[in-house]
Amino acid sequence: LAVDPFDLVVFGGTGDLAYRKLFPSLYRRDRDGQITDPSRIIGVSRRQLSRDEFRKEVSEALEAHVTAEEREGDKLRRFLDRLDYHAVDADHDEGWEELRAAIADGLDRVRAIYLATSPNLFDAIAHGLAKFDLITPKTRVVLEKPLGHDLASAQEINDAVGDVLPESQIYRIDHYLGKETVQNLMALRFANVLFEPVWNSAHVDHVQIMVAEKIGVEGRGGYYDTAGALRDMMQNHILQLLCLVAMEPPSAMEADALRDEKLKVLRALKPIDDSNVRTLTVRGQYRSGVIDGKSVPGYLEELDGVDESTTETYVALKAEVQTWRWAGVPFYLRSGKRLPTQVSEIVIQFRQVPLSIFGSAGGFLAQNALVIRLQPDEGVKLYLMIKDPGPGGMRFREVPLNLSFAETFKGRNPDAYERLLMDVIRGNQALFMRRDEVEAAWVWADPILEAWSRLGQPPAPYTAGTWGPSSAVALIERDGRTWREDP
Ligand code: BG6
Questions:
Q1: Gap from CA of 212 to ligand 1 centroid (Å)
Q2: Whose CA is nearest to atom 6 of ligand 1?
Q3: What is the mean pLDDT of residues 121-147?
Q4: pLDDT given at position 411
Q5: Which atom from ligand 1 is nearest to the alpha carbon of 227?
Q6: From ligand 1's centre to the CA of 361, what distance in Å?
Q7: pTM score, whole prediction
Q8: Does the annotation mark 92 as catalytic?
Q9: Going by CA atoms, what residue is nearest to atom 4 of ligand 1?
Q10: Cβ distance 368 to 350 under 8 Å?
Q11: How far apart are CA 285 and CA 468, in angstroms?
């Protein structure tokens, strides 16, 4: 499983993402023996730091984000030894030459360059890489989200990076694609014969995809207030999940075959615009409330120095994939911050049996449902109607066939970034978004954002610790359905 030695350069190397996710993930891959000598990891940012100061900061980050047990032994020292640091000013010429010289002896290795900075630096960094001759045939550039804030800005980023590198060397990350259960969705669909025959409008009543978070904006208010839930979660993570549910079987588990199929789904999304935005979408913004017995502030109080904002922290909408397979099947999507619990799941709700032969004695027959839980407690549940045991006659109860990952598979579930970082080194683009996918997702999202702004309605308030505004309940109940709260 070990990967070949590589050099990884992380722009934004002292930032929040690097410290919270990237270095902890790299450390875990190193600890498990997947990273081989003489691989190097080079942090880059504008700050002037010595190598030792940088190592100290990373070591503190690891203390905060990996367990004491994982830090035991001599592996931590070995990892810190791989780290180097260079100050580079992306907008100017300072530091680039030194960075080039520092990795000049690694020409034959994979050179991964991770852009974990604000996207308005992507252009300057991409051109700096070219100008200072840092791009080799084995260079791969990883782009973090957000990839723009609308179609035009996404195209600008893609053009700028595309100027200096071919698409085959560009890795646009959506960390949801690295989550274990997300890949399991593909296993469920394409490694089993059971589901595919019923995976269509003849048998599926509707689909729900939910990403609920307990956290608020967590000091990221500056970014979040310019984004909102549609840009932050829907345009990328949730649409990617929708693609994996709705796509046709790719001819092979190969990057372009897979991405071609996802692209077709994105292009088949029914447009939401001025004509239907009011009935198909709901926006919300949290007010102060109580979560897990603790008071939490409202959105505006969390933003520094802002006393008015129409940014949505919750969005629910009804999407539709206009293909033969899915025509008429609603995809209800929702995501919000400061909801009562952190849970992400996909529900495939099947249709009612065509005829209940048990009469009223059996009671209500619930529709079968397949629930794929992404986090926490990863697992898959298939809800079936089962006869209640005992002599009481044919009475039914909805019971899940329950596959809990924790119970079935011992061992730790790797973080999405662990897998995705190693995929970059291995040169596997399957779980990364292609340019046309990102842009197709914006083609769907832009008219929604524009319609909202023309509508000029502020987001509906909801109390932190509740499941969002009541209009979100109405959105689905109008159709005679309900949001599924999985026990
Ligand atoms: C990020 C969003 O992409 O995903 C955050 O910018 C969000 O706002 C996060 O909190 C959720 O990721 P996860 O892996 O914690 O579900």
A1: 10
A2: 232
A3: 96
A4: 79
A5: 6
A6: 47
A7: 0.96
A8: no
A9: 233
A10: yes
A11: 8
